[in-house]
Amino acid sequence: MSISETAKVRRKDNTVFRNIEDTGLIMNPEDSTLHTLNEVACFIWDLIADERVVGEVAAKVHESYKCTPEQAAADVQTFLAILVDRGLVTVSEG
Questions:
Q1: 82 assigned to some structural domain
Q2: How many Cβ atoms from other residues are within 10 Å of residue 36's Cβ?
Q3: Which long-range contacts (CB under 8 A, 24 or more apart) does 11-16 make?
Q4: Is residue 74 part of a domain?
Q5: Residue 92 covered by a domain
């Protein structure tokens, strides 16, 4: 799935998240799968607790992790697409 920079994204309310020693764990109660997140993925996960525009999330990643804006946008869009495929977030086109 391709996600545009103007799309709005939010994590689903029914997911369970824990951060344990710089590793994030998300449990999807719909299928009982457990997903691990690295530091940047945890940062994004925290940002999308409330609905956010994808471009805004990418800008925050760029500011916090000193990567190019293009790299931040590509990485955020790829990660969010994975979360959508796994049923962990909702996306609405802005």
A1: yes
A2: 11
A3: 11/45, 11/48, 11/49, 11/83, 11/88, 11/89, 11/90, 12/87, 12/88, 12/89, 12/90, 15/88
A4: yes
A5: no
Q: By residue range, what is the domain housing residue 34?
A: 8-87
Domain containing residue 49: CATH number: 1.10.10
Tens of pLDDT, residue by residue over 15-40, are 999 998 889 999 998 899 999 999 99
Tally of domains in the chain: 1
Q: What are phi and psi of 92, to 5 degrees?
A: -130, 140
Residue 94: which pLDDT band, with cuts at 50, 70 and 90? low
At 2 the pLDDT is 81
